[in-house]
Amino acid sequence: MSTFRLDEKLSSYVVGSCTPPEEAVSNLIRRTMALGDAAEMMIPVEQAGFLTMLTRVSSARRVIDVGTFTGLSALAFARGLGEDGKVVTCDVTDEWLSIASEHWRLAGIDDRIDFRCGPAKRTLEELENEEAADIVFLDADKTSYPRYCEAAARLLASGGLLILDNVLLHGTVVDPGNAEDELGQYAAEIMDSVSARLAADERFDTVMLPIADGMTIARKK
């Protein structure tokens, strides 16, 4: 299911009502699905299309993508950039980099993507010495979102977008006790506090959308 609030039939209808993904995107999704349970970390196809569109309409030139996995979000952002744009994507591991790189090349946008391996905290600190970002996308360790959000606030240019993925955590944010385990409960509590703080943060205009597992978009003033 691509969207947690919909049943399988309606979810398929949503996907079918979007512009069909290009070959590189479709191939990457199939390759990632073959990984089994790990594929749950991949953004759904309609979310990838939305990120591409958002990048285009905002005329973004520089994107920071926290949580590479098999590279679908980086690919989605890179497709929305102009030829002079750049996506800096980072992950704590390069386990799936070969899959990502293959499909970035297939899409013809590999020259727009800069992969950096290591803890996100370190990478975000390093990026503070570089050009300001137009978009920062967080799709990594949920318990670290408070730290990542503060880093993003420093990294974003005025008018830039902070995008948080999985902000609903399959609904457990409204009842952490329904999480599968203690770690899931802790993550739900952290995510709930992050969302509350961001909604009240005077540095941003914030909206939460029921896309995929919930996505928050905050525009830096």
From TrEMBL:
<dbReference type="GO" id="GO:0008757">
    <property type="term" value="F:S-adenosylmethionine-dependent methyltransferase activity"/>
</dbReference>
<dbReference type="InterPro" id="IPR002935">
    <property type="entry name" value="SAM_O-MeTrfase"/>
</dbReference>
<dbReference type="GO" id="GO:0008171">
    <property type="term" value="F:O-methyltransferase activity"/>
</dbReference>
<dbReference type="GO" id="GO:0032259">
    <property type="term" value="P:methylation"/>
</dbReference>
<dbReference type="Pfam" id="PF01596">
    <property type="entry name" value="Methyltransf_3"/>
</dbReference>
<keyword id="KW-0489">Methyltransferase</keyword>
<keyword id="KW-0808">Transferase</keyword>
<protein>
    <submittedName>
        <fullName>Caffeoyl-CoA O-methyltransferase</fullName>
    </submittedName>
</protein>
<keyword id="KW-0949">S-adenosyl-L-methionine</keyword>
<dbReference type="InterPro" id="IPR029063">
    <property type="entry name" value="SAM-dependent_MTases_sf"/>
</dbReference>
<dbReference type="InterPro" id="IPR050362">
    <property type="entry name" value="Cation-dep_OMT"/>
</dbReference>
